[in-house]
Input
Amino acid sequence: GIQVEQSPPDLILQEGANSTLRCNFSDSVNNLQWFHQNPWGQLINLFYIPSGTKQNGRLSATTVATERYSLLYISSSQTTDSGVYFCAVGPSYDYKLSFGAGTTVTVRA
Amino acid sequence: EPEVTQTPSHQVTQMGQEVILRCVPISNHLYFYWYRQILGQKVEFLVSFYNNEISEKSEIFDDQFSVERPDGSNFTLKIRSTKLEDSAMYFCASSENRVGQPQHFGDGTRLSIL
Output
């Protein structure tokens, strides 16, 4: 199956800092989603972005499908941004999403 | 915005008991999924369901698991005889199409097996 690697595994930020999270995948995809898992375990969908660039407030994402990676940018981080960020991909031959291991972000006040 | 709804939010069950986790997908969606996440680990695919049958299942989805769409709105996951290692967060998801559309996730059911 498709392999999904996220980096870095852990990220500690000071409030107000910017950061970039990376997701590499091993095959062409029809679906790529970024999620934020909050402390209650809920998966909050941030972006559906199999290609191109999107922005939503302080968050933005870019997927370069031909080079098989996606980036999630967090600008002016806030303590509420803390949690685990997952990248999940769906290849063209498959129904399911394959998740990466996540990046744990801690934003300190 | 329409949401995927899961009940209960937390279920505590004795080992060996049967448990049914319930989901109401978004009404115009045709594809349904169950995923699970063991504490501290990544989210894993269990099963996908389309047109009243299983489309794909993982090796985790053994004979102890079953899925059903008993009516036009509910989608259930049954575990027949729970084991300690079934303790996890279970997520239901739905999508309008197989490709070209995102999967929408519910808030999850935290299953604790004692």
